[in-house]
Structure formats: C-alpha cells, structure tokens
Prior knowledge:
Helix content of chain A: 55-70%
Low-confidence stretches of chain B: none
Strand order of the largest sheet of chain B: 1-2-5-4-3-12
Strand content of chain B: 25-35%
Largest sheet of chain A: none
Distance between the termini of chain A: 14 Å
Distance between the termini of chain B: 110 Å
Order of helices and strands of chain A: HHHHHHH
Oligomer: heterodimer
Amino acid sequence: xxxxxxxxxxxxxxxxxxxxxxxxxxxxxxxxxxxxxxxxxxxxxxxxxxxxxxxxxxxxxxxxxxxxxxxxxxxxxxxxxxxxxxxxxxxxxxxxxxxxxxxxxxxxxxxxxxxxxxxxxxxxxxxxxxxxxxxxxxxxxxxxxxxxxxxxxxxxxxxxxxxxxxx
Amino acid sequence: xxxxxxxxxxxxxxxxxxxxxxxxxxxxxxxxxxxxxxxxxxxxxxxxxxxxxxxxxxxxxxxxxxxxxxxxxxxxxxxxxxxxxxxxxxxxxxxxxxxxxxxxxxxxxxxxxxxxxxxxxxxxxxxxxxxxxxxxxxxxxxxxxxxxxxxxxxxxxxxxxxxxxxxxxxxxxxxxxxxxxxxxxxxxxxxxxxxxxxxxxxxxxxxxxxxxxxxxxxxxxxxxxxxxxxxxxxxxxxxxxxxxxxxxxxxxxxxxxxxxxxxxxxxxxxxxxxxxxxxxxxxxxxxxxxxxxx
Lengths: 167, 294
C-alpha cells in the first residue's frame, strides 16, 4: 500500500516536472505533453472517490497557478478522473489477479494492453477538453484535432516509458 | 428519507464532480481574458437574437399607435406645407408686383387626420365612414385625401363620424388636369399642364376610373400623371389622382376616353386627412349669387 507521503511527493514531482520542463517543450509547435496526469493513475482505488476528485482538482489547479490559466487544467483533470473512474471496469481483465481494492492503476496491476487502452481514453478526454477550452471555439477544428492527437501521442509515449520503468 | 440518504451516498460523488467542473468553468470564464471575452460576446449575440425576436413579436402590438402618430404627423406636415407654400407665394408677389396680396386664398387649407372605420369598394355607390365628426370640426363638402392621393368629399356629418363620398362613387366628379412631363427643371417649376378634364367612376374595378372631357387634339401618353386642377372648390391644386393606364379616341366623339389608374388603393385605405378650405364659404356665396342671377 502506497503511503500518503509517497503520493505527496509524486504530486510535487508531477507539478514541478510539468511546469518547469514539459511546459517548455513544444513538439513541432503544435504538441505539448501533459504527463502530470499520471498522478491520476497513481492514486490507489482504496481512496474515496471524493478524495480522488479533490486531489484531481488540486493537481489541475496547481498546474493552472503556474501556467496562468485558472480553471483550465482543473476542469480537464477532474473530467479525466471521472472518465478513469467510470471506465476502469471496461478495461479490467475478467479472470483475474487484479485486486481493485488495493492497487493503483498501472501496467503492473492491469497489464500493458488494458492499461494503455484505459490511458488512451483518459488522455484523449483530458487533452480534448483542455484544448477545446483553451481555444474556446471550433473555428479552427482541424488544427485543434491535430494538436489534441499530437499531444496525446506524446503524453501516452511518456506515460508508457515512465510506467514501464517504475519499480 | 432513507432512500434519499442512500441516493446521496451513491450519487453524491457525481454531484461533487459536477460542482468541481462548474467551479473550474467559473474560474476559466472569470480569470482568463480570452475565454471571458468569447463568453461575453457569445452572450451578447444571444441576447441580441432574443431581443430581436421579442421586438419582432411586440412590434405588432404598437402598430396601431405608430400608425396614429404617423397620420397625425402627416396632417401636421401637410399644414406646414400649405403654410410654406403660402409664404413662398407672398414672397414672390412682393418682389414682382406693386399689388400687396395678403395671401393666396387657394392655398388656405388646414389638415386633420382621421381613421377609416367603414369602407366599401365593390358596390356601385361606395361610401367611407371616418371617425371624426362635427365635434372635431368636420363640415360638409370638405375634401378628403390620403398620403397617396385624392380620396373623396365629406357628404354628411354627425357628432363623431362623417360619411365620405369617395372617388369610387358616380355621385362626384373631380376636376383634374394631366401634367405635362417635365423635360427641364423650368417645366417642373412652372408645372405646365396638357389639359383639364373631369374624373368620374362608373362602377366596376375599384383600381380604375375614367377621365372625361379631354379634347382630341391634346397629345397624351400612357403613364401621364393626373392631378387635381384646383378649379373645384373641394381640392387644392396638385394633389395626386393617378396615372393614365390607357386611352381611346372614338371616331364619333370630340373627346378622349381615358382610363386612369388611381393612386390610392381604396381597398386597404385606413388613414386619411380631411382638408378644410378657409375661404370655401366666400367662394360658394359669390359663385351661387352669379348663378342665381342668371
């Protein structure tokens, strides 16, 4: 069982890593990875759903504070948390060794395929709502979709790398 | 009560989720200039559309009062026009004449607006009832016009209503003249005319009337304008009557047979103006004195 101390440190790392490093990275001028949402997966399922929503909101709000976009990441984070919570049982293998009471969502607990499917859905929802709210119009829909897809690909790739190397 | 608590225990988290999302949206709209301006402009657009819709519905409610105001204004403007014409006439007289004419009696009209409350166009003898009577200063034989042209003459008056004999009634004839088409600005100001005739209606189509007693030698064209001559004591000079629709030269007659398209649409007539000629009585007395002498 992961302790709250571990979650606190992960929270800090996610926020600082996102703000200081990943936000400076503009891939091809269209994409920007938002790896900080790996924190959403790291919260154990034993945490109450209220607590998880609150943490998701705080995480987004912390990113917002540094990016100067109040509310934007908060909205997307809470939304992503909602999607993750509601869709998790679609991706959990039926048989199985997955103990949904204790473990966080990870490759280790779910297997690569299920986890990446879940992550893809969550990341797309997060990035979709984020970029849509940022543009706040559907005038340049093509560019918007390209930005969402490029960023989601980057985020998923980094997420996979991080999850794979987690001890 | 229990089920209510159960309900909140199960779904409370969803309310929490929605509350957090709404809070985030409030933050976005309140603290991000770009999003804020987009929301406000969208709201503006929406409220504009709503107000437009509201306006398009409520506009009709005020049409009646708007119409009344406009007809009042027409009457007032017509009064002003007569005054101005009088003024211009006096000024011209002073310049080129030793005679000091006080005013042109043929321009001494005052105008009053009235609403048509009863009307017919399909009978042989049509009448119009208007909502002004002797209490409003209407007298018999006053002329009635609308913004489009000649309507008719007041025939009988009660306290609050008056009966008008319109052009669409064989009982009245209106002295008219055919305007010469202006070929230069000078023609326009002089207002030359081709000839005088009289307008009468013999039943049938309410859009057309006949013009009689225009001699054959006058060259008229289709589309010529017919206006009042000012020779009868009813109408001032120059009020629009209609345009010539067609004409016929009968071989055994000295006069044209002219069909005039009336400028007033009598079937939709709703507001008219009643003109009061100041020297009507004087002119009538003078003329009848001569006539009875004969």
